[in-house]
Give the backbone structure.
Amino acid sequence: MPFQVSLSGLDASSSALDVVANNIANSQTTGFKNSRVGFADVYATGSLNLSSLQTGEGVAIAGINQQFTQGNITQTGNNLDLAMSGQGFFTLHDASGYSYTRNGTFSVNNTGFVVNATNQRVQVYPALATGGFNTGALADLQLNTSQSAPNATSNAAVNLNLPANATAPVNTPFLPTDPASYNNTTSTAVYDSLGNQHTATFFFIATGTPNRWNVAMTIDGTLLNATAANPTGVQPFNFSSTGTVTTPANSTFVIPAAGSGAAAYQPTTGANPMTLTINMSGSTQYGNQFGVNTITQDGFSTGQLTTIAVNGTGIVSAKYTNGRSLELGQLAISSFPDPQGLAPLGNSNWAETFASGAVIHGTAQSANLGTIKSGALESSNVDLTKELVNMITAQRAFQANAQMITTDSQITQTILQIRA
């Protein structure tokens, strides 16, 4: 009987050493979670002898459980290196189905998909055309490496101040090429439907009557709103006695002006004709200084992908050289009722099991899920000092059980040598 008891102790101690060895071997593995052995004593439960004199039959392995404690976060500087601070797993998919990981070492493959080292694709909630994300479906995260499409300028806002004491210019009529025929000017870039940049210039002409101005506009030197009846294309730009815009209605200039008979500006690049709405509601007429506060417009040129950014909630955005930022999706973060029930697959991946409970999908920073750290990785949670202590403990237990077998062997030999 002592032989069997001690052999069970040897087996248990050997398993404990196996677990310690695996923990130590993976002390530098990204996203690795250390394991712990659970032991259970063994009794002959089928026996009717339940007295306090009953001896045990050894030890058994009750379970080997992975410990999902947080590992240290290490900065890498690579935007597609992602670390999870808190609960949750990144969701991966391939031909074998879904798996879950804390190893956020991701890269872009030759078809633009964001994958891990074994080419499993990172899962996201896809972006909606109307904004936001479709949290009812999972999709592969794929980068669009083609050029970002341009957008023609259709709206602009000009916020400036005209001097209240301005006098009419010396020369009339207004000519864009004659600085003596206007008081002030400013310009901004606008874009056609092919993404070509053009220069829109605004000319401000004092009429000599208080609070009364004219404004004219050109694109690449071509007068806008010019007609036979109004060859200079000037339009009234009037202010109240308190310096706020009164004309045009809603402080908005439209090109071409409704009912003027003027044509839209036709670029020479082959792009569509340009129609513009210029909002000057933020403009004023104060003091004696001309000043431009802000000019904004909604057009942009084509752009090349420059970088990928991931924020704390897992929103993945592509940034382009034209200053545009396009949301590609939001990382799908998975959790489980009992993470210790997950089946380890290797490569710091786990699979759902009956013991783990059904997967629950969500987003970072919601429902007790953690925060995404871009440009960082989660290190192994193995504590080497603790594992070395566990190794010594398991080694001593193994040696003690081996000594027990030696002792039992000696006792048996002594009994065999007894002579009648």
The mean pLDDT is 91. The CA atoms of residues 266 and 273 lie 4 Å apart. The longest helix spans residues 384-416. The chain has three domains: 2-69+381-416, 76-143+307-378, 155-297.
